Amino acid sequence: MRKLILSILFCGSVCSYMQAQEFVKIKRNIPSNNANNAIGEKSAVWRNIAIAPPASNNFPNQQNWWSIYQTQFGDARYDAQLAFGLNEQDLWLRYNFNGDWRDWKKVMLANKEGQLLENIGLGTSATEELLTINGNVKMLGSDKNIEWFTSTWDKGFGHKIYSHDPGGKTLLKIAARHNKTDWSDMMTFTSDGKIGVGTTNPSAKFELFGGGNLLIKGRDNDAGDLIFHSNTAKQLGRIWSNSSGVSGLYLSSGDNTVDLAISDKGNIGIGTATPEHKLDVSGNAEGIKLGSTQNNILFRNNVGGSNEIRSYGLPLEIETRNTQDIFFNSNNGVSKLMVIKGNGEGVGIGTTSPDAKLTVNGNIHAKEVKIDLSIPAPDYVFKSDYNLRNIEEVERFIDENSHLPEIPSAKEFAENGVMVASMSMSLLKKVEELTLYTIQQQKQLKAQDAKIEALTKENTEVKLLNAKLLDLQSRLERLEAK
Questions:
Q1: Neighbours of 107 (CB within 10 A)
Q2: Could you tell me the end-to-end alpha-carbon distance of the chain, in angstroms, rounded to an integer?
Q3: 20 to 30 A from 21, CA-CA: which of 10, 157, 363, 462?
């Protein structure tokens, strides 16, 4: 037993025009008139009619057998007709409005279980599927949904699409249930143009919330590109994978030249598509800047033919975490130019084993060298209580040891080197002692000069006296001769 569904599907003009006398035979089983079952008003009655051909659109389609029933209202301007197609076993409806018969509309039929007896076409005569729509569908109201129950096993599986109006904007949500009795929102489209996955309140054009993976999977080795365009279709940027099947990721600005690359080995390249190191920056006079505009450190290559490290605004510190040494090498590390010992013991130039704060294996050329003394200057030599060796004692020491007292020997110099500060003070001491010897010698010379002067004066006087005596002797001899 079939039943009528009161919902009428307005599917447009799907009817064929025909000549009634050529295609249609009218079945004249007249139902009993029952005004209480009529449509519209109690005064309306159903009556079986014969529609005079050749008026167009008298029948919904070209079936051979029709039963047509018409209501007659008190106002003759308003009528309705029901047409029962015996061949297709379908039901059609049309009405007369102020003398104008409108197009036939097909009535949807279902069995007693509520299952549709045929496929439905809205806006189309093509009804290959259960429901085929050619045109727009408008749904009104909030929290209205379309649900798919994929499986009723256990607690149920399925999906649904529904609208929601939280205020301020409207939402279109896609929800799902996976062996659950309640629905979980999966994706949300907002009326202000945002999309949220895992969130019903996205704060950006696209927001992925709650973690998880975002997978872009290609049909073959090429997984596709992620391209950014301006509103004028100008390419602003591009991200793509390695089309050769080797893992890798590339980023470019508008010209499709690789600006940033991540290789399958985990190397990062800037300005190169084939980075050979964990960070590979390629390009002349390019650099890496760390820090702010005023305070930063800059690494640059090929600037005036040289590579350089610059520090702006702050001191430059080079340090190790614990006590590791810092080396400055050349020739691929073969030549160790300088080492700074991590334990603070010293700096070695030309040697990796410094035995002092600064150890230089080679010559030093300087305009001036300043040494802070850890030993006192030998000014004590000029004190009155200083025990100055006499020169004979020094002479004996030299004869026995072949070097000055308190000065290392040549053998000791060869074995231990020269301590510049100590040696300078020892030499200064010897200079001061030599000064004392000179002073003593000068005093002796002055005393000798005084003696010599006295003797010279005495000698002059003796010569004068002797001259006088010779003169007197000559006179006596002359007197005696007379």
A1: 18
A2: 213
A3: 10
For 412-467, the pLDDT digits (tens) are: 988 888 888 888 888 999 999 999 999 999 999 999 999 999 999 889 988 898 88
Give pTM, 2 decimals. 0.47
Which residue matches tokens 């200057």?
377
The C-alpha R_g of the chain, in whole angstroms, comes to: 61
**Chain-centre distance of CA 64, in angstroms?**
76
176 Cβ neighbours under 8 A, 6+ residues apart: 158, 159, 160, 183, 184, 186
Q: Could you tell me which residues come within 8 angstroms of residue 293 by beta carbon, excluding any fewer than 6 positions away?
A: none
Structure tokens at 436: 């004392």
Burial bucket for residue 80 (CB in 10 Å: 0-12, 13-18, 19+): buried
- Give me the amino acid identity at 379: D
Q: Look at the alpha carbons of 285, 286, 291, 294 in this order and tell me if their dihedral is positive or negative.
A: positive
Is 129 in contact with 137 (CB distance < 8 Å)? no
Cβ-contact 86, 63 below 8 angstroms:
yes
